[in-house]
Design a protein that fits this description.
Blueprint (H helix, E strand, L loop, with lengths): L2 H5 L18 H5 L40 E10 L10 E5 L25 E5 L5 E7 L11 E8 L2 E9 L1 H10 L27 E2 L2 E2 L6 E9 L12 H4 L2 E3 L10 E8 L3 E8 L5 E10 L2 E8 H4 L6 E9 L2 E9 L4
Parallel strand pairs: 1-9, 6-7
Antiparallel strand pairs: 1-4, 2-3, 2-5, 5-6, 8-9, 10-11, 11-14, 12-13, 12-15, 15-16
Amino acid sequence: MKRKDFLRLSGLAGAASLLPWERLNAGSMQLSKQAGCVLIPTETAGPYPLDLSANTTFFRQDLRESKTGVQLNLKMKILGLENCGPMQNVRVNIWHCDKDGLYSGYNTGENAGQQGLTYLRGYQFTDANGEVEFITIFPGWYNARICHIHFQVYVSSSYAAISQLTFDVNDKNALYAAYPSLYTKGSDPVSLASDNIFSDGYVYQMATLTPNTTTGGYDSYLEVTVKGSGTLGIGNEEKETAKQLQLGQNFPNPYREQTTIPFSLQQSSDVSIRLWNLSGQQVALVKQGGLSAGDHNIVLNMQQLGIATGNYIYQIEVKNASGTYKQCKMMTALR
């Protein structure tokens, strides 16, 4: 199984991360937490979105590559509008410019010479808490746009929410002023009122920005509400795959060292379970051949598999007389 075969299906998967995050204080959390759930405003994907799902390079948490800038640990929590519950097993893409306002992958206008580059783009998957985390750098700004980060919440092949986030103007410009050798363009001259995206409102798109004494950078947090219902059970499924198998959420989840993968088969099949870390590397494989139609469980013990307890994407591959079918979800380690 090649990595691209797994990532091609990842629009239905779920994942999250175990990063050395410093806990955000309650006050900063509340800056972006609203009463109830309000659908995130839809914004343009911008001129430089690329298709992250089409390129396996972007399945990663650390987006920096060789780019310099102040480290930004970005956490996003995805909520379902119907019940305000956490949405697990959905893909979240982010992309943004570098400290000088340049986007990777393009060779037009201010981005001349950036074709073929992949910096500051990536995607991850929401965990049992509906959360994703990225390591990146704090973005700069470019002409006519205030500092911002693009994001897409890919719920299923029929629905994805596209929007942008930004930061408090004073906090952002204070960061630029504190690192003049990095952010040589100085303060961002664009106001929220004059920005062509945020001028009609930004309250649900304003992310927190708090210093992280461990990294020397900053932490940021935003809650995003999308269409759908938060769930701790089975996530979205494609119709053809659902005719052959139902992949359940591992239990317990979060887990300590051992967890069980439940699934249901519609006909006799050979089954493989693969575990992938959050950098897109396969770390374990469990095979069971000739399983009958019906409900099944596969127990995974991390010590026996020779891997550390952690957050992994688990993918089931089912082969039978009708073809090959795959589904994947996220298992979350107890913190």
